[in-house]
Amino acid sequence: MSKPKLIKPIDGFTNVSDPDVLSRGANIQTNMTGNPHFPNPPVDLAVLKAALEAFSALIAAVLDGSKKVTAEKNKQREEVIRMLRLLGRYVEVTCKDDMAMFETSGFQAAPTTRTVTPPLTEKIRKIAHGANSGEITVWLKAVPKAASYELRYTVANAGAATTWTTVPRSNAKASIALTGLTPATTYLFQVRALVENTYTDWSDAVTFICT
């Protein structure tokens, strides 16, 4: 007899953009409020709503580049995530693996099987938004016998005036965090590897919108 599949909420927020955290939080707050399936949440949902509103205001305010406001926004983000994780654990236990009940909470269920995401190009494995506005994280794909790597990026559609910024990397194990980028701007990314004292061709360009 096979064991029933346990329902767990998706509550990983490490590489989730601020707007996505805000959107997911607002959906959960709306669905949990007055929900008869979850009558005793460990977080006051009115307090969560106020925290989300404060987070939204700070996301808008941080566009002026103020370090103080950015620090406040990051602190508020962590507080919102803490509340959502508490609610996620409560929903997981209370639903007793009833998917219909679980889905009324606004949380998304984590997949029960692991899926392998194909790399974006032969040298770029993944690109994602960073924790803060103006940040992008890039993961490289290892090249056999590579001694080092170079990642370069530029604003898309820059025409003849294209200027690339190059970031050297000794290996493909750790991700590359890029900061100080322009929100709502599309960037191009390429990677090449140094193999036996000769650089490979640049990989196909990958486009990604910074938030």
Brief overview:
By secondary structure, this protein is α+β, with helices and mostly antiparallel strands. It has four helices and eight strands, in the order H-H-H-H-E-E-E-E-E-E-E-E.
Topology readout:
Layout lengths: L17 H15 L12 H17 L5 H28 L4 H5 L20 E6 L6 E5 L5 E10 L9 E5 L6 E3 L6 E11 L2 E2 L6 E5 L1
Antiparallel strand pairs: 1-2, 2-5, 3-4, 3-6, 6-7, 6-8
Helix pairs in contact: 1-2, 1-3, 2-3
Explained architecture:
With 211 residues, this protein is α+β, with helices and mostly antiparallel strands. It folds into two domains: 18-103; 124-210, Immunoglobulin-like. The protein contains four helices and eight strands. The protein has helices at residues 18-32, 45-61, 67-94, 99-103, and strands spanning 124-129, 136-140, 146-155, 165-169, 176-178, 185-195, 198-199, 206-210. Strands 3, 4, 6, 7 and 8 form a five-stranded antiparallel sheet that branches. Strands 1-2-5 form a three-stranded antiparallel sheet, with no helix packed on it. Helix 1 (18-32) runs antiparallel to helix 2, helix 1 (18-32) packs across helix 3 (67-94) and helix 2 (45-61) runs antiparallel to helix 3. The chain is globular, with a radius of gyration of 21 Å. The termini are far apart. The model has no long low-confidence stretch (mean pLDDT 88).
Q: Write the CATH architecture name of the largest domain.
A: Sandwich
Task: Give the CATH H-level superfamily of the largest domain.
Answer: Immunoglobulins
| Mean pLDDT reading | 88
Work out the helicity level: 25-40%
Biggest β-sheet description: 5 strands, antiparallel
Q: How much strand?
A: 15-25%
Q: Name the shape in a single word.
A: globular
What is the radius of gyration computed over CA atoms, rounded to a whole number of angstroms? 21 Å
How far apart, in Å, are the first and last alpha carbons?
48 Å
Backbone structural class: alpha+beta
Fold-level CATH name of the largest domain: Immunoglobulin-like
Give the SSE order as H and E letters: HHHHEEEEEEEE
